[in-house]
Each structure stands twice: as C-alpha cells, then as structure tokens.
Amino acid sequence: MTDAPLTLPEELFLLAHDPVRGRPLTLPKYLWYGLAGAALADLEAAGRIATEHGDRITVTNPLPLGDPILDGALAALPAPAKGGRGLKAHRWVRGSGRRVQELCLRRLEERGALRRETRRALGLFPYERFPAGAVDLTGPARARFKAAVDAHLPDRRARLLAAYTSATDLDTKLLPGGGFRPLRRDLRRLAREEWTAYAAYRAVQHDKSAAAGS
C-alpha cells in the first residue's frame, strides 16, 4: 500500500468502478478514453505537456514525475520534434487509453484498493474482474465527488473530474434522475470546454458514430 496522493486518473477510475461486481459503470472503452484524458490533465498541470492549435499535444519536459501512471502516460507520448506540430489529443486518447487503465489498475492494486481475479465465461473464456480490496478508496472518492457537486464544483480538479464523467457517459450513473438534468447539461458544456475532457469526448463520439453506422 502507498499513501501517495491519488492522481486524477485514479480518482476517475474509482468513481467509474463498481467495487462489488469489479467492473466499470460505463462502457470499458469510454472509461479508457476518460482515464487517458485525465492523465493528460495531470501532465499539463505538472508542466510536462502543452497544447498547440487547441488540440495538439507537445511534450515540453520529458523528465519523469515519479508516479507510475503519469510517467507511463508521458512515456507513451512522442518525443518533441523540432518543427513538429504535435499529436492530436483525441487520437492519443484512443490509442493509449487501455494502457493508462492498466497502469491505474496496478497502482490501485498496490494501494490495496482492488483485487485482480481471473474467471472464465462459460467455463472457457478467461476474463478479469477487480472487486474491492482491503482498503476502501471508492467510498471516499464518491464522497468527495458528492461534496464537490454540492459545493458547485469549487476548484479546477473537481471541474475536470466532473467533465470526464460527462465525456464518458458516467454522469447518468453518478447523477441520475431529473433533478440532476440541469447539472448534467452544464457538464456536457464543460466537457467541450476543457481540452483534455474534449479529447475523451471526441473519442467516445467516434465510437458511437462507428457503432451507429455499422
């Protein structure tokens, strides 16, 4: 177990995860995209990346931060190229989301918050689930989110986290019912305003369009 502060991807994962069933509350790929976007937000806050032309990522400082999730995400970004235009954020999110989730899973296992179990569907096909471990981090994460919502999202971290819940269709699970409809509408707008959340939103919409056209 480690007492290091939770990263934004870990916080989002805990909000999106059913600790009893050991599965996400939203579609797995949607969560991948949100986690990757959250990693970008933490890297930007740490001065490791910047954006150009609104949606292109450039690495401004390749030095690791000492966090396995953020360092793994940083290593997955292309090295800065002289005269290059950077990588489009939504493309990186689509290609790196699964890797960022695996980094989150490992970290939360180390913290004691999750247990990795391998099972077989129909007795044949192996799959993994991640029920809660001995250390309850999901309960506090949900309580923090509720407090932030009740306080009208008082800081940037809370606004980013809420934007990712909207971008990944998690908002209807965490904020269900008609009473939260105005807030969910505000969060949809916020998900378009924050570039890291918008990258996840675009990736989700791409999947939805592909599914509708198939």
UniProtKB/TrEMBL annotation:
Q: Which GO terms describe its molecular function?
A: phosphatidylinositol-4-phosphate binding
Membrane is among the record's keywords: yes
Q: Taxonomically, which superkingdom?
A: Bacteria
* Major location category of this protein: Golgi
UniProt topology in membrane:
Peripheral membrane protein
The record's Gene3D superfamilies line, in alphabetical order, gives: yeast vps74-n-term truncation variant domain like
Record's keyword annotation contains Cell membrane: no
What InterPro entries does the annotation carry? GPP34-like (IPR008628), GPP34-like_sf (IPR038261)
Question: Tell me, what's a Pfam family for it?
Answer: GPP34
Give the range the annotation lists for the signal sequence: none
Q: Which UniProt keywords apply?
A: Golgi apparatus, Lipid-binding, Membrane
Its cellular-component GO annotations read: cytoplasm; endomembrane system
Its annotated compartments are: Golgi apparatus membrane
Q: What is this protein called?
A: GPP34 family phosphoprotein
**What organism, scientifically named, is this protein from?**
Streptomyces lydicus
List the lineage, top down. Bacteria, Bacillati, Actinomycetota, Actinomycetes, Kitasatosporales
